[in-house]
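Supplementary Text 2. Reproducibility record for the structural model of the 146-residue chain.

All settings were left at their defaults, and a single model was retained for analysis rather than an ensemble. We include the record here because the model underlies the residue-level annotations in Supplementary Table 4.
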Amino acid sequence: MSALVSLLLVVAGAALIAQNLIMAGTSTRASTLLIPLLLNSAVGLTLLSLLLLWQGGAAGLRELVATTRPVTLVPGLLGTFFVFASLTGYRTLGAAPTIALLVASQLVAGLAVDLYRADPPRLALTPMLGVALLILGACLVLFRKV
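Retained model, structure tokens:
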């Protein structure tokens, strides 16, 4: 794996923690989780729209309209659900248990997808052991006694 890609993923993981902490703080000052969710989406939409305009101008907007289908909106719904669930976890469980559950569930789902896509499907011992250890670690974090 490329060192640059690894670094990018590590920084993104840390950025997700910072994002959720800031959004959780915003949610304590608001009457609903919809406020930080909307702010998050508005900033992302504005930034990406400006980048698309800068990169492709009006042709970029035409391409956006031409490639949009109902199914292309599903990732936005899933991403919003992910952020909503994360904020709910941060507010009720804390940062570490929330991240432990998210990472463990993502690894299990990712391994299932890789297994489904493999031709022929095969179970490898080391990834399965890694999943089991990560699930165990998530349980230790989730059920810790402080």
